[in-house]
Prior knowledge:
By secondary structure, the chain is mainly alpha-helical. It has helices spanning about 15-25, 30, 35-65, 70-80. Helix 1 crosses helix 3. The chain is elongated and about 50 Å long.
Amino acid sequence: MVQRTAPAAAGSVRWRDIFATLIAAGHNPERIGHYTERQLKLHYDAACRRERHQRADHIVDTNAGTWGGDDVGKLLRELRK
């Protein structure tokens, strides 16, 4: 499993991986080339953080669906509001 870290924390992140991550996160490819290095790092950090949070949410949802019992119905109703 690949773990992404922030470029500031790990100098081994390649620029093409940063660009690919930002494009996958919805950034306009034509605009990314105009971002400053600081903006690229900040947006990359945010995209990686969002991905980690989504993964954590998936684990929680899977766990709730598997072991949640009666509480699963409550969770689903809350999520579908």
